[in-house]
Design a protein that fits this description.
Four copies of one chain form a homotetramer. Chain A is an all-alpha fold. Helices cover 76% and strands 0% of the residues of chain A. The termini of chain A are far apart. Chain A folds into two domains: 56 residues, Homeodomain-like (Arc Repressor Mutant, subunit A); 129 residues. In chain A, 30% of the residues are buried. The structure holds a DNA duplex.
Chain lengths: 196, 196, 196, 196
DNA sequence: AATGAATGAGGTTTCATTCAT
DNA sequence: CATGAATGAAACCTCATTCAT
């Protein structure tokens, strides 16, 4: 009958936050940020609307936290060794990792892809990850240059287009789009280009 | 002040419909279907809410009509000569036309791209165009096969990914993404493949 | 069947605004700003909650408009002739007018008196009227000085206290507090002081 | 670590009750009864919401207890010697005490003044003190009569108005309103009237 | 005695849609 | 054809209160 300890409370909060955020990712992905209601999210999370507001001070805040949380997770995956050099091997690893992360978080990426197209919501979210992303692009740029590729900028555009196009088609129809096949195809393309 | 003829009336109606639909495309693209209010659309179209409902019986209907109308327009562009054969030249024309259409209707494609990611809204709209699209893919398939390309399916996946990836990046940031450059790059890629 | 003219719409809006504001004054006076719900106000005004928001963009805004509107009305009563001189006669008239205005707008003054005690709400409202009020006090100050009153500041404090005390007691219990009697008493007090 | 005695427990409870009530007075004065949340009060008291409900069974109950507690305290100050006679000296003492009590409990009086204007909340609270108050008025009435004052009722109205007006102005702006000056002024007024 | 997670009713606000004019 | 006032359902959010620990 003694009251819960601070640790117990913290664990409850942390676990419930995760439950809510996961529920929200699902509903946002299905209905879009604006189309999803807080009631739906609470219901999917198995809690009352009121409690959701105990954990997140608004629907907007909930979205921000989801993005922030995902960004933090992805940082870890992609933070390259900071020697400033990206080898061809690392590049292939990066591509594969990229697809793996998407496959493991389809709903998150669906949500994120929709946000990218929605300026009015996009401006709500932090863009810390943009910098990491830009750094990575820079490393790939250097790799392409070192590998004797002529039109480096064009090749980078092609890379981002292929990858983003594959991801968008996959998250739009995860049960039908053959993501593994396109992944192989992209890797194959670069195997030739980077003439390992 | 002679009374207007039936034709005149119909033309007026048709023009106003277009004005409303264009306003709606803009607002939908900016705010998403759910985030856009009928008031905003009416205001942007320069008419009253009531009149909007005179032309479209609901917000949903308005969306459907936009999609249908765009599909009709695009039919015209892409309906190939029905001889069942797509030449390499026609293929290149098709790619170029594709990008041109996107560049001329950025907001429409932004809206459409967002819809593709939103199953709950997507199911509202007609999918007549899907068939045309599938036919076209079939023609490209045949062309690739005829051209001695080995992994035809993989190559098709790569094509749709590159194009969709380019489009999505462009509509997300039309002022910054170098769409012409990626267009050239894609064309170049197929110039090699199709060994014209 | 022809649509309403702009004038007709303006009249409707103007009349309904007044109806809503009057309903709100009553409910605010009875329940306080925070204790009054928009539903109550709409019900008392005989309209739907939604319509209220067509006229006032928030409950706060409604309060502000009430205060502003009242201030404007009261300006007219009290704007003195701008010769910068207040005669004893004018002073008596001012006191009487003051009480009359309160008696004719009990609920408004009840609301206003409560607001004065509530800093968190008070800061929402404009204080344009404060200046007019300060000017008036200045004129009374001069009158008292001209009339040979010794402790002018003390006498001013006494004046505002008597008047405000009378008003507060009256608005708290309008059916029981003998406002006319206290009014006479105050006037009598100054008749002696100003030895007309 | 000997177990606490019943007395110790009760003292602890009593002290905590006081802490909570003081916190509540502050928050009620700042935000009004309806605008203050139980969370704010608990936070200001430095305890949890749950514990607050251990001491007071509802927000309403907390308000009632505050009023009751204050009334009890004030009884002590003002319960006159029960000989049924109020001397002029005692009257002056009463006035001074009155202002002193207000100055020492600004927030309580601010809260109380706001309540007086709010019938819907006012009816929640006990009005035991009203009787004491009425008795006191009676004693003052007698004093005025004995002192040869002509319009006794009018003079009583003036008295309550002056005092309440001074208090209300003071509690509305305690840092600016010169309460000591108006206190002297009122005392002076009665020194003349009661021709001591 | 003490905590804060949890609820649910009810508050404020928005908006698709209808309708009198 | 055209207006915008009006509605009502449903959205977001708050908060007094309860309860397991």
């Amino acid at each position: 009958m003694s009251p819960r300890t601070v640790e117990q409370y913290e664990q409850i909060r942390s676990e419930k936050r995760t439950i809510i955020m996961n529920a929200a990712i699902e509903v946002f992905a299905e209905k879009s940020f604006q189309g999803a209601s807080v009631s739906m999210i609470a219901q999917k999370a198995g809690i009352s609307k009121g409690l959701l507001y105990n954990y997140f001070k608004s629907k907007e805040e909930l979205l921000k936290e989801i993005i922030k949380n995902a960004a933090d997770t992805i940082y870890q995956y992609f933070d390259p060794n900071h020697d400033g050099i990206l080898t061809a091997e690392e590049f292939f690893f990066f591509i594969r990792k990229n697809f793996q992360v998407v496959k493991e978080n389809v709903n998150y990426w669906k949500l994120y892809s929709a946000l990218v197209l929605q300026p009015s919501v996009l401006k709500l979210i932090d863009h810390d990850f943009d910098e990491v992303s830009a750094n990575y692009i820079k490393l790939v740029y250097d790799l392409f240059e070192r590998s004797g590729i002529e039109d480096v900028e064009g090749e980078l555009l092609l890379l981002t287009s292929m990858v983003k196009g594959a991801i968008i088609q996959y998250v739009a129809m995860p049960d039908f789009f053959p993501i593994d096949k396109i992944e192989s195809k992209i890797l194959e393309y670069y195997r030739n280009k980077l003439s390992v």
